[in-house]
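Example for tutorial group B:
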């Protein structure tokens, strides 16, 4: 048979357990909120960077690499142009000399 004392002690045990669970829930909610706040800060910083059109290090490195490739391509084109111009000049001079020699 269950007495009133037994039921009261069980009730007290249950109430203590409920309070412990409530405190754990509160701690978890605070932890989640803190993590969400940290993520919000990161998102806000990213938005500010995009709004201000600031350049990140990665973007700057990518731009630097693209510029090196473009510069190299331009140098190759200039060398080809110089060779073609030099060859054309030599051919023109040779033709003029042939005209005067014959």
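The residue assignment follows.
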């Amino acid at each position: 048979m269950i007495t009133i004392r037994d039921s009261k002690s069980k009730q007290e045990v249950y109430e203590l357990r409920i309070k412990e669970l409530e405190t754990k829930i509160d701690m978890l909610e605070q932890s989640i909120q803190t993590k969400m706040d940290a993520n919000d800060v990161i998102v806000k910083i990213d938005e500010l960077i995009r709004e201000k059109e600031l350049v990140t290090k990665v973007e700057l490195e990518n731009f630097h690499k693209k510029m090196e490739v473009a510069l190299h391509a331009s140098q190759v084109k200039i060398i080809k142009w110089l060779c073609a111009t030099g060859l054309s000049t030599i051919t023109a001079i040779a033709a003029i000399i042939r005209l005067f020699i014959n």
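Residues 56-102 form one domain. Compare this with the pattern of hydrophobic and polar residues in the output above.
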